[in-house]
Amino acid sequence: MNPAPNLVLVGPMGAGKSSIGRRLAGRFGLAFVDADREIETRTGTTIPTIFECEGEAGFRARESATLAHLLLDEGQVIATGGGAVLDAGSRQRMRERAFVVYLQVSLARQLDRLARDRSRPLIAGDDREQVLQRLSEQRAPLYEEIADLRFDTDPWFPPQAAVQLARLL
Ligand code: S3P
């Protein structure tokens, strides 16, 4: 496997970062960390509550700080939140401390995979499709900017995706 100290998965909501990341870590015998769950553990509350109390800016500050802390360590597969690439400092740290895989997903697949989700504040309204489209336009260049590898998750269920992706690493 690549000699970078960590493997980081970036990409939009519904790309499969957590489910694929957990399986990849198992295959490679690495620790798995879900950055969003780590934020919830550290704050003792949920992401929707953080958005409600501190706004998106408050969440982003926690997200960057958590990621910076996690990247001090090594030997981990880290699944980031879809917006982790918004912060320039985080992008730089990911590039320095990880091999970065950009998990790609089409809008149709995203909508399908997130159909029953109620845990993501940014898509809590009725305008899910428009929001996801807009986020994709804003963030795709940022994912591209730091990606060492791109992997299209559309054709696969997570277990197959992990097998296919592991072959490329
Ligand atoms: C977000 C994605 C979520 C979570 C938060 C914000 C985003 O993570 O961090 O709801 O800005 O795209 P997932 O990408 O794991 O869904």
TrEMBL record:
Its cofactor is Mg(2+). Pfam families: SKI. Keywords: Amino-acid biosynthesis, Aromatic amino acid biosynthesis, ATP-binding, Cytoplasm, Kinase, Magnesium, Metal-binding, Nucleotide-binding, Transferase. The keyword Translocase does not apply. Mg(2+) binds at S18. GO terms for molecular function: shikimate kinase activity. Monomer. Catalyzes the specific phosphorylation of the 3-hydroxyl group of shikimic acid using ATP as a cosubstrate. This is Shikimate kinase. The lineage of its organism: Bacteria, Pseudomonadati, Pseudomonadota, Gammaproteobacteria, Lysobacterales. The gene is aroK.
